[in-house]
Amino acid sequence: MKRILIQLSFIVSAFLMISCMSCSKDSGEGNGGELIVEPKPEMNLLDLFYSLVDEQSETGTRSKVFVVAHRANTFEGVRNNVPDNSIPAIDLAVKHGADMVELDVRTTADGVFVMAHDATIDHFTNGTGNVVDMTYEEICQYDMQKNGVVYKDAEGNTVKVPTLAQALAACKDRIYVNIDTKDINARLLVDAVKEAGMQDQVMIYTGDRSFAESCQKVDINVAVHPYIYSADDIDYFRNTGMTGAVLFQYGNTCIYGDSPTNPGMGRQVRAKGALSYTNLLNEYDTAMLNGDYGYVRQFVDSESDFVQTDYCEKVIEYLELVDLR
Questions:
Q1: Which of 144, 185, 223, 306 is the most exposed place for a label (fewest CB within 10 A)?
Q2: Percentage of the chain lying above the pLDDT 70 cut
Q3: Which of 108, 167, 178 is nearest to 136 (CA)?
Q4: Could you tell me if 113 and 174 are in contact, meaning their C-beta atoms sit under 8 angstroms apart?
């Protein structure tokens, strides 16, 4: 009965999403920096995952590929030196129709969760220092930058490193979130997500099985997104009762290049009754900027479900051509 209700909810949500997208596209102006569509997450993320698993068990394939903006990056954002993990980057990911943003979180010396991929602030701000050794107030002395260029908005204002709470507020009811954890306390992180009212829109990525298990112990309904090396690794999460582990990430060398190590990874994960996720980054997505979509085709051929990229507009354009959006 629960699964049937989830399925009905998914159908209703899909109808609402299509209606929303239709209205937005009628008033939008297409690509190239113009408004495309602002997605509205209509469904609990974990329920969405289970609905997709049910759908795929019936059809044997997927009807849509979900696009994740890596560190909230977009083609427009990279081109204009919009900093990674910043509020302006999140806004651009929403603007360009990404389904999800991936955000990196670290803890400051005074226990504040902040958006930071690197252990130091040296590259993403005009300051220096280790995140873990600085208070949030100290970090806020500096402005965010990308490629050595301090970011300024249209009014000439600079931006500061956002807290997790600020980033989640920017995402709430607009876009799903994948939190990439960096030496974080599981209980405090889950509590912070719940305090932000974002438990229905967030999943937590980790390569550490024990961390995933700790998150599930805090709240069995939190979506965790573990890294796996083979589809058989999924059995561990099933056997330990981690019902929040439905979507699994694997290494991109499995499916890309002249000699991929496991081009059928997506199909193998589906056979386990789960969903799959991998990156399309660095040489794999920059190839698109020169008109080479070979790696995107390899991703599509793998039959995986979620793709993470710095250029979501470009990937979305291709997926629309092959009827996977």
A1: 185
A2: 88
A3: 108
A4: no
Separation of alpha carbons 288 and 67, rounded Å: 15
190 pLDDT exceeds 50? yes
Bridge partners of 245? 224
93's CB contacts (< 8 A; 6+ apart) are 69, 72, 73, 74, 77, 101, 175, 312
Phi and psi at 83, nearest 5°, equal -60, 145
Per-residue confidence band for 42, with pLDDT thresholds at 50, 70 and 90:
confident
pLDDT of residue 34: 52
Q: Give the C-alpha separation, 164 to 303, whole Å.
A: 32
Q: What is the largest CA-CA distance in the chain?
A: 55
* pLDDT tier, 37 (very low <50, low <70, confident <90, very high otherwise): low
Query: Residue 17's pLDDT is what?
Result: 40
Per residue, the 3-state secondary structure of 18-34, as one string, reads HHHHHHHHHHCCCCCCC
The alpha helices in the chain, defined as continuous H runs, are: 2-27, 45-59, 75-79, 87-95, 136-139, 164-171, 186-195, 209-218, 234-239, 265-271, 283-286, 294-302, 312-321
Sole residue written with tokens 């954002």:
77
Residue type (1 letter), 248: F
Which own/partner contact pairs does 138-144 have at CB distance under 8 Å and 24+ positions apart?
139/108, 139/114, 144/83, 144/86
